Amino acid sequence: MDVPMDVFETLTSVPVLAEAWEKVKANGGGPGGDGMTVPIFQGGVRGRLATLSDDLRRGVYAPGPVRHVDIPKPAGGLRRLTIPCVRDRVAQTSVGLWLTRHLDREFEDASFAYRPGRSVQRAVARVASLRRHGYRWTVEGDIERFFDEVPHDPLMTKLDRHVPDQRLVDLIGLWLEVLAPGGKGLPQGSPVSPVLSNLYLDELDERLDGHGVRLVRFADDFVVLCRSEETAEKTLARVAGLLGPMGLRLNMAKTRVVSFEKGFRFLGRLFVRSLVIEEMWDDAEGLPPDSPAITGRTDPAATEDDAAAVDPTTGPDSPPRTPPAPVARPLYVVEPGAQLRATSSGLAVAVEGRTALAAALHDIDRVELHPGTQVTEDALRLCAARGVPVSLVGGDGAVDATVEGPLSARAGLHLAQAALVLDPVRRLEAARILARGRVFNQRSLLRRLDRGRHVPLVADTCRALGRSLRKLPGAQDEAALMGIEGEAAARYYPARGALLRGPWDFRFRRRRPPPDPFNAVLSYLAALLYRDVAVLIARRGLHPGFGVLHGTRDGTLGLASDLVEEFRAPLVEGLAVYLVNNRVLAAEGFSTGEDGACAMSQQTRRTLIVRYETWLDRPVVSPASGHQVAWRGLIRDQVNLFARHVEGAGDYVPYALKN
């Protein structure tokens, strides 16, 4: 919406209220105090919106009754939500959307909640970035009952300064009177509360950020980062002094001065040294919990410099970046000396005798123990009993050994797999489909990476890959298919190398041992993806050894090698190029041994794990289900689709990366 001279008239017009109604309808939610639900309101929506517009403009509008809902907080206690009537939510959404756009330019960079283009992930990345720049001490802060204590009079004074229409200010004041009688409070559940909370705390942001300290605030949850303990102690006193005149105070039970060395929690993450761990809970006041995530992180999920970088696996066809549904994920134990232990509710990771992470077992799909880490016998037995494989991973990313429970007792499905493998016609057709998925996505990735660059070798290679795709239908056996795929790979790798920015160089693919840093990165990421696919295959009950394109041989996981093919380009090779071209990886993180093998530092391995997890967290539309999922959800859907194909219930269609 534009900002006209008479803002109130525009925001209360039927077309603008209709836009707000679509938002309310999409959000769903229950009724307010009048009992009217969203579906009932929709039944006569045109007339209801016309009446609402008329009432607002004639000054006869009166908010309806509210409904109170008490929901448990993850950390204990209750949070009260105040739910306005659907009619009032429409009006408040119209105003809230405009306020968010109008006021955002006034807000400080330190504020990350309820703002376009900002998120929990960006706030976490900011904290980790500041640590790397020498801010090693923090004031971990929490405002006492913030949403209940915001005084209305000074808030309305701020609105008067920023909103050019007195009727709009009066309308917001009316809502506050009804929703939070008593002269204070921002009701959680009202569409205008988020932007009003940012407006009220903007004064704190302005006066606190800078001056030798840096603030990162997400609603009423904040940290102030300092370079020394002395500065942090002084800053704590200063924060308390700033909040007092605003009618607010610190919750001293949740406020302290702490170093990164000792660790602290912020927005559901545990920061310990350079480690950032996403926890199974989020006790940030007033925020919905994040999707469960238990991955040990050694770098931020993204940096401010990365935010504008080109992601080669997204494009105009990609879905909006809304949080995907949670999917079980790996638990990486990477800190030397860390120990994996069993608990009454699942698993815990202890560092120097202190629990750094606790997680429920049902949220973990596998455990990886990296060099220098330990595991107790109880933890091994628990994981084996619950079907969670525990792998010992070497410095090169390869698995040295795995402890897991018995193979899934899915005899019928295994027989169906055997029937497919033993039928030459069906096996060849399935292998052809898989080979096509690999070559097609290679070409798509090259085209994406070449956007705006127009490297001649890339254009030539894409044409050659098109010829390879046209050859696949004529292949008479799996050996011929593998030959076509190999020919395509020989063209593909040099073209991809031509898209790397210096000083990185890549001319050929060699897996073991990797002779250069880029080969080492590819091998490490490929090993992570391979284990993801293998775990999801096992969870579906498929036999991992029955391959069609890569064959069925003792000691190999042919099916895992088959189903990983369509994901190599978007999840391994696209990520590797991104990390190199955006200078996430540094040359000093690699070294060459006497045997000529390229090895990477522990910090580089951590960075790869973090970036791989972040890459897979992105949303994508699953062709099999039509739903928006994270990439692990897409892999799971493709594994399920292959299982149905094995059982004769449908065709298998590989995921196709759009050009």
Characterize the structure shown:
The protein is built from 21 helices and 22 strands. It has 659 residues and is α+β, with helices and mostly antiparallel strands. It has four domains: 1-105 and 166-174, no CATH class; 107-150 and 185-280, Reverse transcriptase/Diguanylate cyclase domain (Alpha-Beta Plaits); 329-403, CRISPR-associated endonuclease Cas1, N-terminal domain (Ribosomal Protein L15, Chain: K, domain 2), CATH 3.100.10; 411-647, Up-down Bundle (Four Helix Bundle (Hemerythrin (Met), subunit A)), CATH 1.20.120.920. Strands 4-5-3-6 form a four-stranded antiparallel β-sheet, sandwiched between helices. A four-stranded antiparallel β-sheet has the order 7-8-9-10. Strands 11-15-17-18 form a four-stranded mixed β-sheet. The longest helix is centred in the middle third of the chain and has 26 residues, at 424-449. The two termini are 33 Å apart.
Shape, per Cα inertia axes: globular
Structural class: alpha+beta
Query: What's the number of structural domains?
Result: 4
Taking all residues together, what is the mean pLDDT?
82
Distance between the termini: 33 Å
Largest sheet: 4 strands, antiparallel
What is the helix content?
A: 40-55%
- Name of the CATH superfamily of the largest domain: CRISPR-associated endonuclease Cas1, C-terminal domain
CATH architecture of the largest domain: Up-down Bundle
Keywords:
single chain; 659 residues; alpha+beta; Alpha-Beta Plaits; Ribosomal Protein L15, Chain: K, domain 2; four-stranded antiparallel sheet; globular; disordered N terminus; DNA-binding; RNA-directed DNA polymerase activity
